[in-house]
Amino acid sequence: MSDEPAETWPFLEALFISPARGLPMQRVSSILAVTGRGLKGDRYALGTGYYSGRYDCEITLIDGEVLDRISQEDGIPIRRGEHRRNLVTRGLALRSLVGQRLRIGDVLLEYHRPRPPCDYLQRLTVPGMTKSLGRGAGIGMRILEGGQLHEGMEIEVISMPANCLRSLP
Description:
Organism: Prosthecobacter algae
Mean pLDDT: 79
Protein name: MOSC domain-containing protein
Radius of gyration: 15 Å
CATH architecture: Beta Barrel
Pfam family, one: MOSC
Order of helices and strands: EEEEHEHEEEHHEEE
InterPro entries: MoCF_Sase_C, MOSC_domain, Pyrv_Knase-like_insert_dom_sf
Number of helices: 4
Shape: globular
CATH topology: M1 Pyruvate Kinase, Domain 3
Distance between the termini: 46 Å
CATH class: Mainly Beta
Low-confidence stretches: 163-169
Domain MOSC: 26-158
CATH superfamily: PK beta-barrel domain-like
Strand content: 25-35%
Number of domains: 1
């Protein structure tokens, strides 16, 4: 837990990007989220990610609490971006965000899909990474409105308007 007052939770704990497939993740304190693309300078916004062209990978989120558990229980190094996700959140149950939007400052994100770990991730990191992350690997989101993201920003959960949902035939 942090010494932050409860009203500042949930918040953006860390930001990571990688300029190309296979390169280590780099922690940044601030980054521009670009509508419909991703994070400026990140492999997926640049179209150089492992899954570029195969999946929508604008931005990925992972629970800081999941990273704590992986580090403590499994002894897997995870704090320098080895998880290969863009945003580390704190105080937010990501699995509960299906059908939701998030507001982080000017940035509006919309839930896209779960982001399970893959064998490629483990090839880049350490044995056991895929299994450990499989218990809470994170989610993918689309960037509906871009803007600047900074570590420590508050995250607001916004329910999607009912008129956004299509009725099934």
